[in-house]
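Researcher: Let's continue the batch. This sequence belongs to Periplasmic [Ni/Fe] hydrogenase, large subunit, and it's 313 residues. Same format as the previous ones, please.
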Amino acid sequence: MEKEKEFYERLESKGVSRRDFMKYCTFLTGTMGLSSSFIPKVAEVFASPGQRPPVIWLHFGECTGCSEALLRSMYPWIDELVMDILSIEYHETIMAASGHQAEENLHKAVEKYKGRFICVVEGSIPTKYNGAYGKIGGKTFLEIAQDVCPKAAAVICMGSCAAFGGIPAAAPNPGGYKGVSDALGIKTLNLPGCPNNPVNLIGTVVNYLLMGKLPAVDELNRPLFAYGHTIHDKCPRRSHFENEEFVLEFGSEEAKLGYCLYKMGCKGPETYNNCPTVKYQGGLSWPIQAGHPCIGCSEPDFWDKMTPFYEES
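Model: Same format as before. Here are the structure tokens for Periplasmic [Ni/Fe] hydrogenase, large subunit:
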């Protein structure tokens, strides 16, 4: 009870009422596909955290955009996520240690929590020339991944680079960049997006803490709660049309006038993600709402298969 009281006091100091927080928990519960009866339990995960699961966050071939997105998460904010909910043992972007001390922290954490830690991977892995296109502490990305990932209880790929190779794997791909699963031959839980929405990682973590397991996934190992529908399925612009079947391609004066972005190359009908419902920047907006067509960034090989981005598929 004391921890819960302190939690709500911290929320209040940041200008967030208990009512606003419960609205967020309702939204997150719905996003995860759980019934309303889970709302108090989801709130309890944040307000009264129990044992914090250890997390080792690895960076490979990426731009750190997914970490930057996570740093801007809300309810929990990044400080609460790091200090109260998760025990992040290694994360190059936010850790105080550097150099040999940072590498020592990594190796100690892997051994201490072997078989129990969650390994979050951000970025793809170069595989050509024995992985020579990327190194940390004298070891290649490939060597680090081969050492750390198999020792984890679960491997979560944060962003399209880690999940499917992303932009580094785009043709001609001289470094042989691959997603973690392809590079190592292991099963991973994939949270693609460029960047991935932090709500989907939070939902995955909450599912793990509530159920003791990772969420159900599709054939590409993406959580169904986040990637169970296409962008087009949930896009608010589609409700503007009377006939929903191929009207974007074969009819509708509104489409000709440009209300729908399909004619501008929107890849929404081919892209599975929950962007229309969770949005970005604390639920403020998302690309299509801002007038930009979806580029299909959560699909495998999107940089090659979805281009040219501004032409109809």
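Researcher: Any comment?
Model: Confidence is low (pLDDT under 50) at residues 254-258.
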